[in-house]
From TrEMBL:
It comes from Arthrobacter cupressi. Keywords: DNA-binding, Repressor, Transcription, Transcription regulation. One of its GO terms (molecular function) is transcription cis-regulatory region binding. This is Transcriptional regulator, TetR family. One of its GO terms (biological process) is negative regulation of DNA-templated transcription. PANTHER family: HTH-TYPE TRANSCRIPTIONAL REGULATOR RUTR, TRANSCRIPTIONAL REGULATORY PROTEIN. InterPro entries: Homeodomain-like_sf, HTH-type_TetR-like_transc_reg, HTH_TetR, Repressor_TetR_C, Tet_transcr_reg_TetR, Tet_transcr_reg_TetR-rel_C_sf.
Length: 216
């Protein structure tokens, strides 16, 4: 589905309005305008139709958000929990999760507070991840909390991945914060082939998975 959506994303000239086209255009509008300006009216304008025309193909904004969630999360690899040990599967899942949302960072704030009810593919992912945790010996009462803890870290890391490269640079104040500046430069030279954001993500992910492993 994602390849088709990407091919058809954009302003349609004479396309027949349908659900797939609406969702593809919704992604385009979100990526361009951000969540604050993402409205049904803005989507209809992009499609060249009146807002009521959308409701012949979608159930409303929540339905569109569910479809957008499916598009954004399509690249998340949760099947790894069927074949890899828990820690390796969790790391692989987290990396693909971060990459999926880093490609559409505006979706994070838009979808973070929308219940997953009705988002069937997302629920399927949670089912597979939960089963992977369960098979690894996790107590039932800690599984969802552990998943949410990982998601909180992953989504924050996805935003960091698209932040400016000089996000942490002290600039003209480097002389006033020598300890921090020295640590920053040391980190840059330790893994020169990795971005600062990637280094932070890998370090944090390793620490988080190791810490969670001790809670099983």
């Amino acid at each position: 589905m994602s390849e088709t959506l990407e091919r058809r994303a954009g302003r349609p000239a004479k396309n027949v309005l349908n659900r797939e086209l609406i969702l593809a255009t919704a992604i385009t509008v979100l990526n361009r305008t951000g969540p604050e300006d993402f409205t049904m009216a803005a989507l209809a304008k992009e499609l060249g139709v009146k807002t009521p025309a959308l409701y012949h193909h979608v159930g409303g904004k929540n339905d569109i958000l569910a479809g957008m969630r499916q598009f954004v999360t399509a690249g998340i690899d949760y099947e790894v929990f069927k074949s890899l040990p828990w820690d390796e599967a969790t790391i692989a899942w987290a990396r693909s999760y971060r990459a999926a949302f880093a490609a559409h960072p505006y979706a994070i704030s838009l979808l973070a507070t929308v219940p997953v009810t009705g988002a069937h593919p997302t629920l399927v992912m949670y089912e597979e991840v939960s089963q992977g945790f369960r098979a690894a010996g996790w107590p039932e009462g800690k599984i969802v909390s552990a998943i949410v803890a990982l998601e909180n870290f992953i989504l924050g890391s996805a935003l960091d991945a698209v932040a400016p490269p000089d996000m942490m640079d002290p600039g003209d104040f480097a002389g006033e914060v020598p300890g921090y500046t020295q640590a920053l430069r040391a980190g840059e030279s330790t893994e020169p082939r990795m971005s600062r954001a990637d280094q932070a993500f890998e370090l944090g992910l390793a620490a988080l998975v190791a810490g969670l492993a001790g809670l099983k």
